[in-house]
Structure formats: structure tokens, C-alpha cells
Amino acid sequence: MAAAVGRVALRWPLAVGRARCLTASCRRMSSEPREELKVRNLDGEDSGIVVVGINRPKAKNSISRNLVHLMFDAMEDIKKNNKVRSVILCSLVPGIFCAGADLKERAKMAPSEVGPFVSRARALITELGNLTVPTIAAIDGAALGGGLEMALACDIRIASSSAKMGLVETKLAIIPGAGGTQRLPRAIGVSLAKELIFTGRVVDGKEAFRL
Question: Single GO cellular component annotation (predicted)?
């Protein structure tokens, strides 16, 4: 066990360092077929790093039923692969990380469908947070609502200075429904988290780092 922990400790700085250069890597993935989720297992010196790229350009990477299904499948594959040592969550769409729930899709749901969908989306983000390998959110663009909740579920968030982040649900007369009210206070403190959640204020990467 001690030897295994030592190997992880030695490799971990490499995973963090590679995350700082992820924008170009993620964009290269987008030249392949335009699937809603693209999972890439890196090789060579990056072997063991899995890059999960969200790719819904027309919907600003919003969280749909299909995306939730695909991400659950990806999480299951990651859990079964004992060679995975780090997971990087990023976007393949320039200027957007994830705009939150797909409200256009939700508007078409029957009332009886909304609750189960929200519960499954919440379970997905919990599953992401429970992965037993380090997870990194590479935020290059807007991470709003459920998008920020996904990033908060990761162990580390690396963002561009121009990134936009916020739990904006109160502007829609709802509350963050996938753990944001719990994870944001743990990251920045209760008072600041309340202010951001109550007002729905959006901050850029520089302010998010300061907070």
C-alpha cells in the first residue's frame, strides 16, 4: 500500500502540470466525430490520464438526459480500469465549459419526468465526486449552474482568467440542485457562498481564484 501511495504521489504533479496545457489538447479531440461526450485515454508519459470532453456546441454543453447517460457510462469505465490515475474534465466547445441543465429539453418533459431527471443528474455529480482517483476540471469558458456543480465535484479546478463561474439558479426562482449549496461553502466559506448563491452573481477566473 505504501509503495502504491508513493507512486501516485510521484505521478500526481505530472497530472496537474498537464492540466495547465489542456485547452489545446481538448480542442484537438473536437476534430473527431462530433459526439456529445468524447473520452480519450492518453498514452506515453501521460498514460493513465483520462480526458473527458463535453461536446454539445449547439446547446452550450448543457446537461441533457443523453449526456447524463454517457457520463455515467464513462464513470463506470473509469472505475473498472485500475490503470487510471487521474481524470480531467474539460469542454470541446470554445468559450463554454457547461451552461448547466438543458432547460429547453426540460421544458418538454412531463412533470413526472423532471424529478427523476434531476435526481439522476445529482447522482452523476456525486459519482464524479466519489471517484477514487484525482479529478481536475479544466474550465475554459462559462461554468454555470450544474456546470459549476460538476467542477466543484472535482478535486481541483484550473480555470482561464476569462472563465465565468456562478450558481445562477436563483435567477430562475430555483436553487442549485446537484450539491452546489454544499460544495461551494466548503470551497470558499459559508458567507461568500451564500452571497453568490442568493444573488446568482457570476465571477471570472481571477475573482474565483481570489475567493
Answer: mitochondrion
